[in-house]
Structures are given as structure tokens and as C-alpha cells.
């Protein structure tokens, strides 16, 4: 009889094992469905908002162009920007619940608008999402532990261990690996089946899907191998279960939490507030400075508008937008520093993923799903690029004092999201794979027969 | 049973009292625990972790608080040192307020990392709080924060499971249970002894938290009642696990079965359900985006009227009413600046709208939380979190309180500035907000914002239903334990 079918038959007869595998499949399906639903909801919201925005613009067009002043139109027209969920976003919803994926901006100083928050329920965000990433990171290891912790001791309890070891084939490595491999393989299948179906249905790019499959496989391999290592070296089932669950707590709950505390202290991010305070001083101080001096300062950085006629008495839009831009420029360096420290946190987290597979798989999945801090910063870059285009569009009307017509209103630039390159998160995957291979190598180095944990 | 009789006859005075038996069983359990090579290091590790958590949480809370009050002072000074200006320029200059951290946030920071703490207040707008840690911290924050609440809520029950799952089962598996009962020990005494032993371990786990809470209460303005509530709720939470662990250990035939069952219960109640519940709540009650709300507000405002349009029905009625009130026929003849009055009326209208929408949004969020609370019947940790965050002043309701106070303050500030425009700037000259200015001394005293924390009774009221759920769980588990104890007696007989 084929050894694999025999093994499968044994597995089917073990009701707790079958229950654990079915549970994993059910949880993974549920998580994928919840993720799809949320991604669809966000898409729907985006479509709805785009429609709403069109209506608002139509309603405003006549009123804002009546006087023919570009300044008025620029002041009152909000433009929509958006960050649509990527084709893999349903797997790992990441920061999308707590950060805006739509933001309205206008041609005033950008720094006062860019950090605006979104309405969300912080208590719900606090718990974290129930998505595929969660099932994989937290629950899959528990199922693997339940399936494998008494790999050897279970045989002893059944009284078969001696017999099995006496069988031709020596240490019985093939048997154990077959047994562990079958269970881990089925667990992997239970995790990936809903993902594959959803990915095909969503038309997820092949590279991303390969990345998700690789991350999942590496993580499952890591936990299966770790379970085998401990189950074959610790005699009592209770002790190996304790050690494995202890390891799970350490790797998925405790160490990442400790690391977060350390990282928050090592890379402090206060500059965000400083940025806001400094920017406000610059912009509002603009009202008190001599207008000509402000405009000259602007022209020295943007000589293409130098030819503009002298300021009229009273209020002038071109002076107004010039000092708005100067306000942004005055904090440009601070903003870069702020961004850099955010990215540093992200990088340290990715490096931590080399040591902690739970963090590694989180990093890889969220990178692939483009729902992490980096994706949020990329969205901010898109907003900034659009905002720059918006300024460029308005400045000829302002500085050349051209009439702003209804046609010009309709021809205003529209936000476009820059194409996000598919990112398989190769570096994180490599770290994850390394951890999995080390664990697998340890599992492969079977204790010799003399070293079998035979005492009870 | 008869075997015990001669012993009793031989030395009736030496027979231990029931309480003494319970204590001896507990002492025996503790002796075993001390010798256990896995449990003891784990317990020591947990206690060290608790101390570290208490220290880091306290330290980072102190830093955050110092930083926020420094920023608040700076914003205050910035506001007061603004030069002579048109009051309307000050309306747009606005003010920053920083959400102060409640002292007990060191124990349970709750939503603090998610809400942001910087609020920019300006005229005609309600901004959201910014720079929440969640937007600035990669994804690690989602794994949890190292605080005493995290350690007690998530890790401590797990350790209780490992330490206690075999407490009764071990006696049965090794056959000592039969001997003990044969010697006249009642099942209730045995179970009480095991409870005492595991309860002692739980009390030990609670000790660092108690010391930390006492320190917070002594060194800060934290109300002692709320600190006591925090301690009591977490004590009750650990008691739930002590009851559950001993009951399952007494019920199931083998220690390993008890371990597997308890681990599954822990994984479901502490890891799985707390994530499923918010998911369900969010899909049952979705929140509109800020984008939609802003547009809706703008539309409702436009429907009210346009203050720049001389023929607008609403604002011409307002003008007539003002003129009638002062008994003049032209705005130029008013003793006050009509533009200032118009600003005040506009601000009143916009704020009314903003507040209505904000209240609606908070109302929806409260409904979401009610859904989550229903899941506490499946997973008591949800009830515990509700009590804990309410007592620590770090739940959504506390955040809402801050936002609403800040909004009231914003309204007062903007209206005070509008009033300055009405009273100090003459209508005839009020052509340009750049050229017409009033003295800087007028900004003094306007920038004072101080958050009034909610009365203790408020937190207690919010925590009460969830505390009731926790007590209900304790009752159910006590009944389960009683049943398991009775079963223990029957099984051996």
C-alpha cells in the first residue's frame, strides 16, 4: 500500500486533526470573504465619491467663474484625490482603516491639508482587522501546533512507537516527515485555497499571487518545522505543547510588542507636530510682512513669474498664493525629515521581520497588498504631485492676470494615482524563507535513535 | 470510608480543620510549582515583563504628557504673541490644542495611539485630530503595546492555563485523588485548595500592577477610585481564569485534554473573537467618510443661505432683524460693525451643522461599540477592555469628550474674535483684513484651553454594564466549578 494514502487514511480517522484543518479552512475563507467585502466597499465608496465630486464641481462652476478670478476659483474648489485598494489589498487591509484613502485638497498651502485624518472608530481599529494576514500570522501556527505537537509522543501513547522504530528504515525519518508533511501541506492548502480562488476571481497579478503563496508557504514551513523540532526532542506531549505555545506567544505577541516599544523610543517622530506649528507661523506671518518683499522672495525661487505686474492696492490673489507656497517651502526640509523618520521605522520593522517570522510575513503581505506605511507615503507623494500640477495650472491665470473662464474651470487638472509597481517584497520574503529553511534544517537533523526522547 | 475511622479515633485532636486541609493542598501545589522547571521561569518572566511594562508605559506616558504640555504652552504663547491684526485674521490663524493624556493611560493607553492628539482649531471648520501613532508606526503597533493591561489581559491567563491545567487532573491521573478522598478529604476541600493555590499565583501576577497603580495614584491626579476599579476588574479577569482552569482540570479526564481545551478557549476569547467582533460591528454599521460629511455640510450650508448675496432671503432677514434690534435703517448707522455680526451668525450656523454631523458620527460609532459589547457574552475580555478603558479614561467616550470640549472652546474663541471685529473695527473702514488692525493686547486671555476630565461617576457608569457581564461570567464559571466538583466526588465513589 502506498505510504501516503495510508498516512492520509490515518489522518482522516483522527477527528481532532480533521476538525482543526476544517476550522483553518473555514477561518481562512471567512477572512478572505471579509477582506473582499471591505475592498469592494472601499471601491464602492470611491465610485460614489467621484460621482459626488463631479456634481459639486458642476454646481460650483457658474458661481466660481462669474467674476473671472482664478484666485476665487482656486480658493473654493476642492479636488478629490484617492488611493484605490490594490488587487491584493483584500488579503491584508493594513493601515487603510485608520488612514484616509480619499482626501480633498485645494491650491492653498499643502502642509495644512496633507495630514488631515479620516473619520474612523478608534476602538474598532484598536482591535485590528480580521483579515487573511491575521489568520495566517496568529491562527495558522496554533493549528499547526495542535496538529504536530504530539507527533512522536502520540505514537508512544498508542503503544506503537517501539514497533515503528523497529521497522526497516532505521530512524523512521521518512515516516515522521511524511506525517508532518501531510498535515502541514493540508494546512497550507486550507489557507491558500480561498486565496487562490479569490485571486483568480479578482484577477490578481501573477507576481503578487506568487509572492503571497511564497510568504504563506515559508511561514507554514517555519511553524511546521519548529513543531517537528520540539515534538521530536521533548518527550511529554504537555511539555512540547507548552514549549510550542510559549514560542508562539514569544514570536507573535511578545517580541513584536517589545520591539514596538523599543522602536517608538529609538526613532522618535515628533516632527509632525513641529511641522504643523512652523507651517502655520509661516503662512499666517505672511499677512504681516510687506507684500512686495513676500512676492520678491517668491519670485527669487520661481523666476518664471517675475514679469508679473505690480501689486494693486488692497487684496491680491497672486500675493496670497505666493505666501501660501512660501509657507510650504519653509517647512520642506522639516517635512523630508519627518518622512525619513517614518520610513526609518518602516525599515526597522522590515529588518525585525528577518528575526521574527510573524513580523516578516506581516511586512511581506502588507507590502504586497500596498496597505502599509510606505503605501500611505506613496499616496501622499501622489497628492503632493497633483497639488504641484494644480498650482502650475493656476499660476498663469494669477500672475499673468488672465481671465478664468468656465472653460478653464472645466479644464482643471484631475488627480491621477501614479502606477504602483507590483512589489513582491523580495527582501522580506528572503528573510522569511531563511528563517523557514533554518527551522527545516533543524527538523531534518533527526535525533539519532539513541537520542530518542523515550522517557516519560 | 471506614479506613479513615481508626485514624480519627486514634488522634481526634490532630485531625486538621477543613481550612487547614485547603491550605495544605495549596501549599503542596505551590511546592510543586516551585520545582517545575517550565512554570517557574515562565512566571518569573511574566512578573519581570509586568514590571517592565509598567515602567515603560509610565515612562512613555510621562514623556508624551510632558511633550504635549510643552507644545500646548508653545501654541498658547504663539497665539498671545501675535502682532496687531484684523480679528478675522486671528480666526484663520486659529489655535492648536493638544489632548492631555489621562494619568491612568500608563496602565491602559486604549485608543490613544489611534486618535491622534493634535487638534487644529480655526474658523468655519472642524478639523480632525492628527498625528496618531498608528499613522506613524509601521504595523508594529497592531501587534499590541507593551502595557500592564496587555500583559494582564493577554499573557497572564495563558500562564495560568499552563500552571493550573493539571492541578486536579494530575491527582486523578496519578491515582492520588482516590487516596486523598479515601482519607476523608472532601472534593470541595480539594478544589478549594487548588483554587487557593492558583489564586495565589494570580494575586502574585496582580502585584506589580497594584504597585504601579498605587504609584500612579500617589504621584499624579488620577482618582484612586478609578485605579481601584482597574485593579479590581483585572483581578476579576484573572479570577475568571482561575475558576475556569480549575473547573476544566476537574472536569476532563486527562491533564492534556484540559490543556488543549483551555488553550482553545484562550485563543478564541483573547485572540479570535476580539477581532471578529469589531469586523462584524463595522459591517453592520458603516461610517461615512469625512469627504461625504464635508460635502453634505457644505450643501446644507448653501441651502441655508449665502451671506455674500445681498438678496439672499435668510441673510436679508437677519439684516432686517439686526437693524430693527438697534432701531436704525442702514447697516452703516449701526453702533457695531455689521461684518462682525455677520461673522458671528455664520459661525453659529456652521458650528450647529458641524456639531450635528459630529454627533451623528459619534452616535454611529457608539452603536458599533454596542455591537462589540454584545460579543462580550462570547468573550469576557471585551467586557474587561470596556471597563479598563473607561476607568483609564482612554475609551472612545473619553476621546469624544475631549473633541467636544475642544469644539466648544473653538466656538467661544472664534465668536470672541468675531465680537472684537464687531466692536473694535468700524464698518466703514472694514474693507481689508490686511490693512485694518486692532491691538495685540486683545489676544490675551483668549488662548486658554484646559481639558476637564470627566467626573469619576461618568466612568463608573460606563463601566457598570461591562462589569456586570464580567460578574455574570464569574457566576457561570463558579457554577461550572461546583458541578465539576460534585462530579469529582461521584466519579471516585
What descriptors fit this protein?
heterodimer; A: 456 residues; mainly alpha; two-stranded antiparallel ribbon; 19 helices; 71% helix; elongated; B: 493 residues; 3-stranded antiparallel β-sheet; 17 helices; 3 strands; disordered N terminus; membrane (chain A); transmembrane (chain A); DUF3526 domain-containing protein (chain A); transmembrane helix (chain A)
Written description of the protein model:
The complex is a heterodimer of chains A (456) and B (493). By secondary structure, chain A is mainly alpha-helical. Helices cover 71% and strands 2% of the residues of chain A. Chain A is built from 19 helices and two strands. A two-stranded antiparallel ribbon of chain A has the order 1-2. The longest helix of chain A has 51 residues. In chain A, 48% of the residues are buried. Chain B has 493 residues and is mainly α. The radius of gyration of chain B is 31 Å and the shape is elongated. In chain B, α9 runs antiparallel to α10. Classes of the chains: A mainly alpha (456), B mainly alpha (493).
| Series of secondary-structure elements of chain A, N-terminal to C-terminal | HHHEEHHHHHHHHHHHHHHHH
Give me the count of strands of chain A. 2
Described by strand count, sense and barrel closure, the largest sheet of chain B is: 3 strands, antiparallel
Largest sheet data of chain A: 2 strands, antiparallel
Roughly what fraction of the amino acids of chain B lie in strands?
A: under 5%
Give the helix proportion of chain B (percent range).
55-70%
Mean pLDDT score of chain A, rounded? 88
Distance between the termini of chain B: 10 Å
Tell me which protein chains meet in the greatest interface and how many residues each side has: A-B, 91 and 93 residues
